[in-house]
Amino acid sequence: MCMSHQDSIALKLSLIDSEKKRFPMAAIYSLYIINKSGGLIFYKDYGSAGRMDTNDSLRVASLWHSMHVISQQLSPTTGCSGIELLEADTFDLHCFQSLTGTKFFVVCEPGTQHMESLLKDIYELYTDYVLKNPFYEMEMPIRCELFDINLSQAVQKDRVAMLGR
Amino acid sequence: MQFFGGSEISPSPPVPTASGNNAHMMYVFNRNGVCLLYREWNRLLHTLNAQQDHKLMFGLLFSLKSLTAKMDPTNAEKGNLGVPQLSGQGCSFHSFRTNTYKLSFMESPSGIKIILVTHPRTGDLRESLKYIYNLYVEYVVKNPLYAPGTPIRSELFNTSLDQYVRTIA
């Protein structure tokens, strides 16, 4: 029997959902992608208490954009490229800025390792499934199914790898 | 909310792992945003004049605190973004790192903020900041000639601070 494209995607998504139930531990709380002018183009929550609404996530994203710029101005030496890691009392925030100014940041549990490589992976997925999508308009919110699917897989893989350690 | 030691300086400051000149600068602010102390040891780049620099630093800390309070993933009751918070209230942060520096931050229950900017590879400086806070209590708060809220001009505090900061790895 031949499975249609939509069926295969639905199957994949249900697999991801079952994975989610098996691994409820949230190593990563949320992921944000902001464009070069500080607008939020992607936000995904992976189980933090009190999910942020749309307005708040937009505000937080643009606030982070400005904090990133100010931190460069306060540097004691030249060549500062902004905050990479913010250590708060209850979470860590890892940020990666691409050469074009798009910022990717994850909120995760304090002391979570290997977040830089996860961010690089997500950046790679972004270039493959978002930038190469002919229907995607630059600097606009990301609505790409393939990106969502591959992103969930990357995050799950990271979680499984963490549990295995 | 934690308390920072007793009335006397802890007899042994946190043991430094290696000696070096890692600290770039330090700020002390009171709860009203007045810069009580600014020391710099090794700062090559000055983009702004001193007053603007202090304002920008205080603004950065204030905004980062409201950001972390809003982002706190373990607490569902967070209130609105940017609502002023008392010290010790809401989720705060203790450090951030860029490719050129690391900023460590501590706030006392009375709203005194101590900020230390060091080399990006330095480790956790929370204990060091507590020790510096103890120095502040001993040499500044207990000085009868010091009026609270005015800039710190204490020779003794500065020398002991310089001496201690030189040992931070």
Describe the secondary structure blueprint for this structure:
The complex is a heterodimer of chains A (165) and B (169).
Chain A: H1 5-22, E1 28-34, E2 40-45, H2 54-73, E3 83-88, E4 92-97, E5 103-108, H3 115-131, H4 145-164
Antiparallel strand pairs in A: 1-2, 1-5, 3-4, 4-5
Helix pairs in contact in A: 1-4, 3-4
Chain B: E1 23-29, E2 35-40, H1 50-71, E3 93-98, E4 102-107, E5 113-118, H2 126-141, H3 155-166
Antiparallel strand pairs in B: 1-2, 1-5, 3-4, 4-5
Helix pairs in contact in B: 2-3
Would you kindly provide a written description of the structure presented here, covering whatever features stand out?
The complex is a heterodimer of chains A (165) and B (169). Chain A contains four helices and five strands; from the N terminus they run αββαβββαα. Chain A is 45% helix and 19% strand. The model of chain A is unreliable at 18-24 (pLDDT under 50). The two termini of chain B are 27 Å apart. In chain B, α2 (126-141) packs antiparallel against α3. Chain B has a five-stranded antiparallel beta sheet, sandwiched between helices. Chain B is an alpha+beta fold and 169 residues long. Chain B has a single domain, classed as 2-Layer Sandwich (Beta-Lactamase). Chain B contains three helices and five strands. The chains are: A alpha+beta (165), B alpha+beta (169). The interface between A and B is large, with 38 and 42 residues.
